[in-house]
Specification:
The protein is α+β, with helices and mostly antiparallel strands. The longest helix is centred in the middle third of the chain and has 17 residues. Helix content is 32%, strand content 29%.
């Protein structure tokens, strides 16, 4: 019997889990953080995976992914192709990728989510065709996403913390709570 809430996504009978990606926008700074843990069932497979990257012309766009690694890399490649086609138009590139992701028979089966950000905008992309921009400038996806989101929202109330400081502290809190998130955090910033 396949019970999706116990094993992961419906196409994920093994139960791959892992990843917390957090993007925080504060003032002129944007920080995207991701932990390094990848697990298979109850076993940590890797503790230092790099799930946050710079992409696009001049490496001016931050991207982070949660889900199956090969699927995420496929989506990153597709997003980079869209950015080449629509230079300087992150929103347009994201919408075009989301359309392809939802309608293409091969892409529809990919199990991943993405967070992307440039100087001006942050978006969550899903296989349902969603391109979501947060109201408060904070995006969190993955196993520990809700923990990181709650922590980041609380930390945004602390004056004089940079986006990077908020992201690092929120990721530590998420790593303390979520068994699928570790403290091996990579942070990339803009601004």
């Amino acid at each position: 019997m396949n019970t999706p809430f116990l094993t992961g996504a419906p196409h994920d009978p093994i139960g791959w889990h892992g990843t917390t990606i957090l993007c925080v926008r504060r003032g002129a700074q944007v920080a995207m953080a991701g932990d390094g843990q990848v697990t298979l069932g109850q076993t940590v497979i890797k503790g230092n995976a790099r799930k946050v990257r710079r992409i696009g012309p001049g490496n001016t766009i931050l991207s982070g992914f949660a889900g199956a690694t090969a699927d995420a890399f496929t989506l990153l490649e597709r997003l980079e192709a869209k950015l080449e086609r629509f230079p300087g138009q992150l929103e347009r590139a994201c919408v075009e990728l989301a359309k392809d992701w939802r309608t293409d028979r091969y892409l529809r089966r990919l199990e991943a989510m993405m967070a992307v950000a440039d100087r001006d905008h942050s978006y969550t992309l899903t296989g349902n065709g969603d391109v979501l921009e947060p109201e408060d400038g904070i995006i969190a996806i993955g196993s520990g996403g809700n923990y990181a989101l709650a922590a980041a929202r609380a930390l945004m109330e602390v004056p004089d913390m940079s986006a990077e400081q908020v992201a690092r502290r929120a990721m530590k809190i998420a790593g303390d709570i979520c068994v699928y998130t570790n403290h091996n955090v990579i942070v990339e910033t803009i601004g």
